[in-house]
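pipeline stage [seq->struct] | target=Pimeloyl-ACP methyl ester carboxylesterase | organism=Lentzea waywayandensis | residues=227
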Amino acid sequence: MSARNVVLVHGGFVDGAGWQAVHDLLVADGYRVSVVQNPTLSLEGDAAATRLILEQQDGPTVLVGHSYGGAVISEAGTHDNVAALVYIAAFAPDKGESVNTLIADPPPGAPVPPILPPQDGFLFLDKEKFHASFAGDLPEGRARFLADSQVPWGVGALAGAVSEPAWRVSPSWYLVATDDRMIPPPAQRQMAERAGATVTEVAGSHAIYESQPGAVAELVKQAAEAV
């Protein structure tokens, strides 16, 4: 039986509203879609917020995470309702790993995300470099809005270590954004391979969930139909 429920988890610096196009495509195809508004203060808190939404599902669910949201679904995805995991240009930590450990040794020549020094325990991206680094294939106006509406990302969230990674117990799919300047594509491929994920590669920026919603929705449906 195919999974008909989908739960979408956003990453750092943004909120769940960016999933709207993916949400609408999936709803049009008959899926029941929920969007987690994780606070991005701590991994533990974000996993708890995700489990709240998973508790509301009435059957097998595809759990989807973008960027830091991949760490969240790796932690929260051991919930009984989760039938499949989908990583969208996302971190996929193993047991004991955090976002901090995964970004500690970037591939040679990889772009450096323009993350500003912590401010009262929170991180922001340099607004002037946001478009090029995070959302290079979005219109300038949309990228400016995302830069101006950034959600403060708690440094504790980056340090949160995954306890038992869900990808070790559930099948996973991974969309590599080949033009990503936040998480280097080689790092994405390495994490996907380690997780044993079914991999799709799409030309797009880190904001591929907004710039290529059709490709993202198709991969989610592929996972749902494989359950």
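stage status: PASS
auto-comment: Strands lie at 5-9, 32-36, 61-66, 82-88, 122-123, 153-154, 172-177, 198-202. DSSP finds ten helices and eight strands in the chain.
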